[in-house]
Structure formats: structure tokens, C-alpha cells
Design brief:
The radius of gyration is 21 Å and the shape is globular. α5 packs across α10 (197-211) and α9 (175-185) crosses α10. The strands form 4 sheets. The chain has a 7-stranded mixed sheet with strand order 7-6-12-13-14-11-15, sandwiched between helices. It has a 5-stranded parallel sheet with strand order 9-2-1-10-16, covered by helices on one side. Strands 3-4 form a two-stranded antiparallel sheet. The chain folds into 2 domains: 5-48 and 61-65 and 73-82 and 216-284 and 417-473, FAD/NAD(P)-binding domain, CATH 3.50.50.60; 66-72 and 83-215 and 288-408, Polyamine Oxidase, Chain A, domain 2, CATH 3.90.660. The two termini are 24 Å apart. β1 (5-12), α1 and β2 (31-36) form a beta-alpha-beta unit. By secondary structure, the protein is of the alpha/beta class. 36% of the residues lie in helices and 17% in strands. InterPro entries: FAD/NAD-bd_sf. Pfam families: NAD_binding_8. This is Dehydrogenase.
């Protein structure tokens, strides 16, 4: 790195964070090359035909409340490159055995009106957060150890966010409101009695009330394709099929951005990485895995509750208590009989994904880290609990275990699609305690994956923040 070419950068990994970092650097006139180990770019934002010809499935990421609300993606002008956000009639539904489903739609007032006795409490909680979401996102989607730009709003959010989700959910009295909050909090993939789990529900539901829970027309891959097109327009290059195992394999450029898991970053940097940083990266903890099913369903999922038939996303887990139990079991390494399952019906907002009356249905369940069993029947049983007759409508099925998820994307260690467990420490201080968490301790080398702030999701903010750190390192701070 001593003879580094100062106007050049290499980005290892082409997920949304790697491409975001590349685009930010390229906008400053830096010549950027992105190296991707797989044959196709995109990381978790790939799409393709996984079951029957003509049916378009998202390989991992599917619904994007934080994508459409991301300060970086909103400023990137991706519409110019073909990104179109499509919204279903109902953003989120949560079916229950003994009561109508809980329903979330974009306007806070309409959601509150459908929650009966909990309507006023829902409005009090999410009304102010939604009104101030744009300012809130500027602070929450940055490292925690920074002076917030909007301290009062951020402090108010932080006090609520620190609480365990099961405690916050119990402020509501109806099963619908409690289940809606618990299902959103379960995206943390942590026991709901852990501190900070409320943050995930608050952010996802508030983003939904502000922007909805949209999908990208033509599949999540269109976000990847748009970022790549914008980068190429600025002269950036992308090479696929190039697996980087060491910095020694790279030409001597001034800046290297690593869109990889912390352990992989330690391997790539080797002895150049300071011992304290390498130890922190090796101690990085991974969370539960995902067991994914892609279904081709004739006539759609036969949900008992009509609202679920019109919802882009359906959280399948039953009551607050059932979800909390399932997440505890998964965290303890036990496969629950009734796991928390996420179902996405993207075709409702984007009909072009279907082939006639056969529709792609995206399903994944939370399972223990590195789970080696076949959870197909367990997952389908849980969905059929609220949609009896589903199996009769399935014309094709493709499954992907946690090991398969990791093979598909090396950052998903043990099937952890968030690239790290959302413990209190790792949520606040990812990937280590540092004023600049993107620096690896190796001059000119930065970590920009979902293991850095603000964490998992298709928002590009990890890459954006890391690239800004790199620009400061080049003396281009504030640009």
C-alpha cells in the first residue's frame, strides 16, 4: 500500500453497501473498481427464476421500508436508472387464530382506526415518530458514538428504543396491536425480552407509516442494477468472479472498501490489521439463521383472513406470547414447532412477477444458527395454520437452508442474513467500540458491510457512511 495510487479505490463485494460506497467515492472523482466473488452482483439483492419459468423470485431481500426511506438511496436518483417502488393495498397483516388480523397501512391514522381500543395509543406512539422520521433517520442510520444532528428527537426515540419489545408491546391491550409490534420487533432475531429490541419495531413500523412497505418493480435486483448503472456512468468498473483472499492480491490503491463479514475482513487484512482490531473482528457474534422457501402458488395463498390476501407482507407467528417463545427457542438453539415466519406476496404490488394465475410467494422462518435440519414441513404447517389448503396450491417449491444461505452469500454466516447478532452491544457498537467504526486499523482499508452501523437492510447507509470516512482519510472531509 506504500506506493498507493491516491485517486483509485477498490471495493470488495457488490452488495448494496459495497455499491453505495463505490458510488459515493466515484462521485468525488475517484476511479473505483468493484470486485465480486460471485458470477452475479448484488449480494442479498438478487432476483431470478427459482421455481417455474416466468416466475420472478427475490433471493433474499424482498420488501424495502428502509430502502425507500434511506437518506442515501433517496438522494441517489435511482429512479433515473429504473427503480420504481410499488406498494400493495395493505402493507402488513398479522393473522391470529381467534381474532381478525392486525393490519398496518401507510397512514398512521388509518392503522390506528383499525386497532379499536389501541388506536389512540398507536397514534400517540407512531404519530410523532412518523412526522419526524426524515430527521430521525439522519441520526439513527449513523454510528451511535456521534453527536446527533437532532438531539431532542433522537433522544426521545432512544429512550423508547432501548426497551425490550415485549415490554413495549404490553402497552397495548388488543392481541392485534401487540402482535403487530412483536412481529416487527422479531426482525431483530433476538429474544423479545432483550434490551433494544423495541428499536427494530419502532424503525420498521415508523418507516412503513412514512413511506409504506414497498417492493421494487422487477425484483430487488433492480436496486442493484440501478446502483451499478450509476457507478458505470461515472467511470466505475465491476468485475465478477473475483474472490479476494488477501490485500496482497490487490493493486496498490489508496482506498480499499470491504463489503464482507468481520471475520473475512480479518482474513483479508492478515497481519497488517492491529491485534486489538483483529480480536474484535474474531469475537463478532452471529445470530439465528433463516430457512427460506420460494413457492409457486396457483391462485395465491388461501389465507382465512381476507386482509392477508391483500397484504404485501404477512407476519405469521400468532400472538405476542407465541412469537416471544419462538424467538427464545431459536436463540437457545432449539427449533420451535411454530417458528416465526415471514411471507411476502410481492406480486400484489408488482403483478409482472407472476405467470398467469401462478404467483411467486417468498417465505422464510427464523431457525437456530447453522440449523442443519429440513424445516420445510414445519414452516408450511405454520403458514397453513392461517391458510389451510396451501399445500394443494403449490406447483413448485425451492428451499434454501442456513448453509445454503451462506453459500449464496458468504456474509450470511450460519444463515444469519443480518451479518451479525443484534445484541445490545453489537447494535450500539458494531463491529467494535470505536469513534470511527469503519476503519479497520489498516491505513486506507475500511469495512462497509452490514456489520457496521446502522446494520442490516437494503439502505446502503453502511456503505455511504464508510465511504464518507474514507473521504475524510483522503483529506476530502465535508464533501
Amino acid at each position: 500500500m506504500d506506493a498507493a495510487r491516491t485517486g483509485e479505490a477498490i471495493v470488495v463485494g457488490s452488495g448494496p453497501n459495497g455499491l453505495a460506497a463505490a458510488l459515493v467515492l466515484a462521485r468525488e472523482g475517484i476511479a473505483v473498481t468493484v470486485l465480486e466473488a460471485e458470477a452475479e452482483i448484488g449480494g442479498g439483492t438478487r432476483s431470478g427464476e427459482l421455481t417455474v419459468p416466468g416466475l420472478l423470485h427475490d433471493h433474499c431481500s424482498a420488501v424495502h421500508p428502509l430502502g425507500v426511506g434511506s437518506p442515501f438511496l433517496r438522494s441517489a436518483g435511482l429512479e433515473k436508472y429504473g427503480v420504481e417502488w410499488c406498494r400493495p393495498e395493505i402493507d402488513l397483516a398479522h393473522p391470529l387464530d381467534a381474532a381478525p388480523a392486525g393490519v398496518v397501512v401507510r397512514p398512521v391514522g388509518l392503522t390506528a382506526a383499525g386497532l379499536g381500543a389501541d388506536g389512540p395509543a398507536w397514534q400517540r406512539l407512531f404519530g410523532p415518530l412518523t412526522a419526524g422520521f426524515d430527521e430521525l433517520a439522519e441520526d439513527v442510520l449513523r454510528p451511535a458514538l456521534r453527536v446527533p444532528r437532532h438531539p431532542l428527537r433522537t433522544a426521545g426515540f432512544g429512550l423508547r428504543a432501548l426497551r425490550p419489545a415485549d415490554l413495549t408491546a404490553r402497552r397495548f391491550c388488543t392481541d392485534q396491536a401487540r402482535a403487530l409490534f412483536a412481529g416487527a420487533a422479531a426482525h431483530a432475531m433476538q429474544p423479545l425480552n432483550r434490551p433494544m429490541t423495541s428499536a427494530f419495531a419502532l424503525m420498521l413500523l415508523t418507516a412503513g407509516h412514512r413511506f409504506g412497505w414497498p417492493v421494487a418493480r422487477g425484483g430487488s435486483r433492480t436496486v442493484t442494477d440501478a446502483l451499478a448503472a450509476a457507478l458505470r456512468e461515472l467511470g466505475g468498473r465491476i468485475e465478477t468472479g473475483v474472490r479476494v483472499r488477501s490485500l496482497d492480491e490487490l493493486p496498490p490503491v489508496a482506498t480499499v472498501m470491504l463489503d464482507v463479514a468481520p471475520g473475512a475482513a480479518a482474513d483479508i487484512c492478515g497481519e497488517l490489521m492491529p491485534t486489538r482490531v483483529r480480536r474484535a473482528y474474531r469475537r463478532w457474534q452471529y445470530g439465528p439463521g433463516a430457512f427460506k422457501l420460494d413457492l409457486a402458488v396457483e391462485g395465491g395463498v388461501p389465507w382465512t383472513d381476507e386482509a392477508c390476501r391483500r397484504a404485501g407482507t404477512v407476519h405469521v407467528g400468532g400472538t405476542l406470547e407465541e412469537i416471544a417463545f419462538a424467538e427464545r427457542e431459536v436463540h437457545a438453539g432449539r427449533m420451535p414447532r411454530r417458528p416465526f415466519v415471514l411471507v411476502s406476496q410481492q406480486y400484489l404490488a408488482d403483478p409482472g412477477r407472476s405467470a398467469g394465475d401462478v404467483h411467486p410467494v417468498w417465505v422464510y422462518a427464523h431457525v437456530p444458527h447453522g440449523y442443519q435440519g429440513d424445516a420445510t414441513d414445519t414452516v408450511l404447517d405454520q403458514v397453513e395454520r392461517f391458510a389451510p389448503g396451501l399445500r394443494d396450491r403449490i406447483v413448485a417449491l425451492a428451499g434454501r437452508s442456513p448453509a445454503g444461505m451462506e453459500r449464496h452469500n458468504a456474509n450470511y454466516v450460519g444463515g444469519d442474513i443480518g451479518t451479525g447478532a443484534n445484541t445490545l452491544r453489537q447494535t450500539l457498537l458494531r463491529p467494535r467500540a470505536a469513534l470511527d467504526p469503519y476503519r479497520t486499523g489498516v491505513p486506507g482499508v475500511y469495512l462497509c458491510s452490514a456489520a457496521t452501523p446502522p446494520g442490516g437492510g437494503v439502505h446502503g447507509m453502511c456503505g455511504f457512511n464508510a465511504a464518507r470516512s474514507a473521504l475524510r482519510g483522503l483529506g476530502l472531509a465535508g464533501r
